[in-house]
Amino acid sequence: MTDAKLLVCIIEKEERLEDVLEALLEEGITGASILDARGMFEYMADEIPLFAGFRALIQGNNPTNKIILSVVPDRDTLVLAMDTIQSVYGDFSLPNTGIMFSLDIGDTRGLPS
Amino acid sequence: MKLDQFVRKAHIRFQFDADDKTDFFKKMARDITTIHPDFEEERLLELFYLREETMSTGIGNGIAIPHVMYERCESQEIFVYRLAKPIDFAALDKKPVELVFAMVGAPSPSNIINLQILAKLALMIKHPEFLEKLLAAESADALFEALIHYD
Question: Residue A111 domain-assigned?
């Protein structure tokens, strides 16, 4: 077990991603992977014919989301990253914004020491 | 979620006559407004047509699940129509439809319950044995019993 944490941040307002990444970089958090994602309901409305009628009814109506995955070395860096994201992106408790959480990391390979 | 919260025996029609898809929706809207005199037949029909324009709700294997969110509806209700003869529904698998589950739901910001009911129905008819049982039911009572005991 390491002190490293995995930060998972799902951003529904895709247009804010650039600001978020710039802010993280400015704070020295330089490693992250960005994934394209779709919410469950968006996927169902777009891909499963029975649910097609719900496309227009989906709150927020974001076609895609972005997921930021970042392994940070310790809890202090994790808190810094989360605070930085929230200060730029806004309050995650509002509907249709996204979610952010962290996970403890077990064994690793390939992480910078 | 069990379907007995949403299906009533009085909402099941057996040997329902319809010449084609349009005729079915007209008769179905009339039937539902007979059960719910507070519903407007024309509005209901318009909503069902709008949904079909998006994509057919004939999901295959002889089943259709048309569904609408209707502002005058205060909960979720499923109306079941076992057709006297199969009709073309422009279904995904091109097969004619012989059993229709029509859902009228109360609009809500998340539509969670409406989505859950659709998911339940969709999962249900993916069980070949159960689908066979539904299609083989020889009365409204038998259809109702099969439906409410599905888990």
Answer: no
- Which tokens go with B151? 């888990």
CB pairs under 8 A between A and B: 32
Tens of pLDDT, residue by residue over A53-110, are 877 766 666 678 999 999 999 999 999 999 999 999 999 998 889 999 999 999 888 8
Between B59, B115, B122, which is nearest A54 by CB? B115
Interchain CB distance below 8 Å, B59 and A49 = yes
How many CA atoms within 13 Å lie on the side-chain side of B143?
23
Find the CATH number of the domain harbouring B38. 3.40.930.10
Phi and psi, residue A48, nearest 5°: -115, 110
Residue A113 lies in a domain: no
- Please report which residue ranges of chain A form alpha helices under DSSP H: 17-26, 40-47, 75-89
Q: Which residue has the tokens 């719910």?
A: B36
Is B36 an active-site residue? no
pLDDT: is A58 or B11 the higher one? B11
